[in-house]
Amino acid sequence: MNTMPGTIDLREAAAEDIRFAFAPFSLGTALVAASVTGVAAILMGDDRTALSRELAGAFPAARMTLDEAGLEAVVEKVVALLEAPHEGLNLPLDIRGGALERVVWQALRAVPPGETVTYGQIARALPVPATAQEVGAACAANVLAVAVPCHRVVKADGSISGYRWGVQRKRKLLNREAMA
After folding, report:
1. What angle do CA 73, 74, 75 make, to 5 degrees?
2. Which residues cross the membrane (predicted)?
3. pLDDT tens-digit map of 123-145
4. I want to staple 97 with a disulfide (CB 3.0 to 4.6 A). Which of 90, 101, 123, 136 is the partner?
5. How far apart are CA 100 and CA 27, in angstroms?
6. Closest by CA position to 178, among listed 99, 95, 112
């Protein structure tokens, strides 16, 4: 790296450490990632390699470290959330995104377990102008599955539509919450 003495390479300054671990749960495999601030990602899937790629794509400048032992207590709490979303998560979150995404995600965190809202309802309730499509895009960008409950958003007719981690998982999460 060719930098002048006393200067900071912005690529190095932007790098951060993200620790992550995997855990099985009833709907597949969870990848839980943490920064120094808190839980930065909760991803769901069936393939560890695909989940690792998804994490790397979400945090392209970060140094990733598999830390199963160091994150054991955090992972345990996240898996409890995934199994029983109505119980909530008592961990700090490192929520990252654009201004509109963050406003959408904040609104979604206010939707009680067992209830659903439409993309349009969220858009109309925001303190900034947004369309239902923009709400959908914010949901698609969410990397904190269930902690930011995008699974609680449905189409205008009440039907279940796309979900970053699969419509089947969305349906099962909603069913769990409805039965709690």
Report:
1. 90
2. 20-43
3. 999 999 999 999 999 999 999 99
4. 101
5. 30
6. 112
* Domain at 72, CATH number: 3.30.160.70
Give the sign of the dihedral formed by CA 78, CA 27, CA 83, CA 58: positive
**93 falls within a domain:** no
State the CB neighbour count (10 A cutoff) for residue 168: 12
pLDDT in tens, 3-62: 444 443 334 445 799 999 999 999 999 999 999 999 999 999 999 999 999 999 999 999
Amino acid at 149: P
Nearest partner of 42 among 171, 169, 153, 142, judged by Cα: 142
Q: Cα separation of 119 and 132, whole Å?
A: 5
State whether the Cα torsion 84-153-162-103 is positive or negative. negative
pTM as predicted: 0.90
**Catalytic annotation, residues:** 150
- Chain position carrying tokens 């993309």: 119
Could you give the C-alpha distances from 87 to 10, 78, 97, 111, in angstroms and in order? 41, 11, 25, 14
